[in-house]
Design a protein that fits this description.
The protein has helices spanning 2-19, 50-55; strands at residues 26-32, 43-47, 61-64, 70-73, 82-87, 90-91, 107-113. It is α+β, with helices and mostly antiparallel strands. The protein has one domain (23-113): Immunoglobulins (Immunoglobulin-like). The strands form two sheets. It has a four-stranded antiparallel β-sheet. A three-stranded mixed β-sheet has the order 4-1-7, with no helix packed on it.
Length: 115
């Protein structure tokens, strides 16, 4: 009987701990070209303010897309970010320059087209 109670207590504790495990605010950005194909090796920068974005200074995060055209950033604020995505002579100027406000404690997903 004591073994059953201990087992139930252990399972309850594990379930309780899992329910409080929080994901930090993240964003997963997929970069596609004008044909809709994903692009590897695109440099992506995130900026908190429009002034930093326009001056291309003080990026809060920077990375390159992987073989699937995806770059991920973690530990972000729950705000809207300005994005520069650039590879060779292609970039996202004219569209997809700002994300919506990120949902806190979630993995937010965005697709940006470069041309």
């Amino acid at each position: 009987m004591k073994t059953i109670i201990r087992s139930l207590a252990a399972v309850s504790f594990i379930l309780f701990m899992l329910s409080f495990q929080l994901i930090k605010t993240q964003i997963s950005i997929t970069i596609r070209n004008e044909l809709g194909n994903t692009e590897q090796g695109v440099t992506v920068q995130l900026f908190e303010t429009e002034d930093d974005y326009k001056a291309e200074t003080n990026p809060v995060a920077e990375g390159k897309t992987d073989a699937k055209g995806v770059v991920k950033f973690k530990d972000l604020k729950s705000i809207s970010y300005y994005v520069i995505a650039r590879k060779d002579d292609k970039d996202n100027t004219g569209g997809g320059e700002q994300t919506g406000k990120l949902e806190a404690n979630r993995i937010n997903k965005v697709t940006i087209v470069i041309q």
